[in-house]
Sequence to fold (206 residues):
Amino acid sequence: MSDLKLFSMPSSGNSYKVRLLLSMLGMAYTHIPCEVCTPALEKAKEDGSLPHGKLPALHLTDGAVLTESSAILWHLATGTKFLPADPMTQARILEWMFFEQNRMENVIAIRASLNSYSHLSNQATPERMAELEQAGIALFELLEKHLGERTWMVGSSPSIADIAMFGYTHSSGTRGGYEMSPFPAIASWCDRIKALPDFIALDHQP
Ligand SMILES: N[C@@H](CCC(=O)N[C@@H](CS)C(=O)NCC(=O)O)C(=O)O
Fold:
């Protein structure tokens, strides 16, 4: 049996989701940081540590390797308070996790990447940024309505739906360049997540 090992990108929301849950679960692991455009990332790709060529990748103690942040969150949260056993609650959690990957990530995370990674700046044309801004605002309006009516994304306690949705949403203003003041329910929800025990910020490195 080897240690639990996480290959993760320090600046990435998808990797952050996994680091955040591991912290909240109090799980010990070895962190292998692989930042974008660094030799560490190239090495991890070349030596087979990233079966799909992407981060995060969790190397389990039995040698299995799990990729895709949502699958990793689901695996780690199984049997914990972050993934209640009730089937309808689980379906709702999946609903938001798919929403995050299919609707949010390709707008919010892309705008943040174009805004903050210098190697992508040539793709950050005014037209593309404006298009992503409008698409993001429509998503935040939807999320604002949802969170205006409840405390957590699903049910009455924080779950991996909150962690998945928080991964990029929390830094939409600072990294994505979105004006977030019209969305107070989203801000309050972010504050509730930040107040949870063993919360860590994106830039906290294990
Ligand atoms: N849907 C995947 C996305 C994985 C992904 O695209 N990871 C990016 C960072 S957010 C990555 O590995 N980029 C490095 C590269 O493509 O070379 C997940 O949620 O894990």
Q: What stands out?
A: Residues 99 and 105 are 9 Å apart (CA to CA). Helices lie at 13-24, 39-46, 69-77, 87-116, 126-148, 160-169, 184-194.
